[in-house]
Structures are given as C-alpha cells and as structure tokens.
Amino acid sequence: MRRGLRLLAGLVLGTVAGIAAASTAAQTTLRFNVLLDGDPIGQHRFELRESGPTREVLSQADFRVRLLFLDLYRYRHTATERWLGNCLEALNARTDDNGEIETVAARRSGDGLVVDATRTQGRHGGCVRSFAYWNPRILDGGRLLNAQTGAYQPIRVLPLGEERVPVRGRLESTRRYRLMGEGVEIDLWYAGEDWVALESRAGDGRRLRYELL
C-alpha cells in the first residue's frame, strides 16, 4: 500500500480565474477532501495568487492512513510554484513520504527550466508545466513535471465524455479526462474550466479520490 500511495500522491500535486471556490479578485483557494476506498485520509489545499500574467500557487497535502490508533502511512507535501501565463517559472517542493524526504527545486534559466531534485537533475526547454490539475491547459498533453520526484514525464490525455457527478452535494455536468503515462492513470473531472474531482488507483488496487469541499 505504501508504494502505491507514494507513486500516486506524488502526482496529485499541484485555479484559474473563475473557479467556484472562496475567492477574491487576486486570490483563490481550493480544498479537496481525500478518500481512500471511500474513507477520509486527509486534505489537499491549493492557494492561487494572481498578479497580471503571473500566478503563485501554494500546494499543501496531509494524508494519514490509520488502523485503530496506529499510523500505517503518513504523507505530507508542500510546494510553491510561480507561473508566467501557462508556463512554469519556478518550483520548490518538499515531501515527507512516511519518513522518506524528497525535495525538488526548479527555476527558469534562459530558454530552459533547470531542475535539481533528490532523484534527478535536468534542463527542459520550452513551456514546462507540472501536474497542475487546476489549469485545464495540461489537457493539451505532452510532458508534465512531477513536483515530488522531479521527473519530466510523457503524458497522453484521453477524453471520456460528459458525466454528471456530485460536487458539494449537488449533481453537476462535467467532462471527464484520463491522464496516462508510465505509472500514471488518473481521471479528472472539470465543470467548465473548473477542476472538481480526481480519481485513480493506488499500486495495490485501492481507490484514491479527491472531492471538492
């Protein structure tokens, strides 16, 4: 279970103006309840601050899987990202994955994004994006940067059509998409431009789901 959750949680990191959340003209907050096989295990919070074409995003996740009074698994992740338009300019992340610490630092240098992570280093040209589910432009496909590992992963996007799903206690019309790549199969739901849900399978076949609060 630990390995499956680690791989999945590392991808679930990462609104645009118009998100249906508590917001002002310059700041938007999204909070998701995180469930494992229907049982709540924590929350993931996103805060976006916008100034012209620049966005700053703070992502904070805290998951805990318990059996009676014992912690079987604990995951804590904090990341800050700076975007210019739809392209990532800088990222700093720290993850405590059940006591295993990983860090990722990335910054724009010239025409590339330089990444220095616990597992990998690299330089990536062009417009780099992370697994920023709040930004529907990631559905264009291509490669996405994993904010836990620093890997720059090829991703394919499969549209799965329209679907009505519960959002904050009400059925909403949404469009469903599946992100696929090596070790990645994640379903996303959008109501218009707004990200409202996520679901995937951990490595042991258990279901991880995000529901908008």
Compact description:
The protein is mostly beta strands and 213 residues long.
Q: How many beta strands in the DSSP annotation?
A: 15
The helix/strand order is HEEEEEEEEEEEEEEE
Radius of gyration from the CA trace? Answer: 16 Å
> How many DSSP helices?
1
Write the layout of secondary structure elements.
Layout lengths: L1 H8 L12 E2 L3 E10 L2 E13 L2 E14 L2 E15 L2 E11 L2 E10 L2 E6 L3 E5 L16 E4 L6 E16 L2 E12 L2 E8 L2 E8 L5 E6 L1
Antiparallel strand pairs: 1-2, 2-3, 2-15, 3-4, 4-5, 5-6, 6-7, 7-8, 8-9, 10-11, 11-12, 12-13, 13-14, 14-15
Detailed description of the structure:
By secondary structure, the protein is mainly beta. Helices cover 4% and strands 66% of the residues. It has one helix and 15 strands; from the N terminus they run αβββββββββββββββ. It has a 15-stranded antiparallel β-sheet that branches. The longest helix has 8 residues, at 2-9. Residues 13-25 have low confidence and may be disordered.
Keywords:
single chain, 213 residues, mainly beta, 15-stranded antiparallel beta sheet, 1 helix, 15 strands, 66% strand
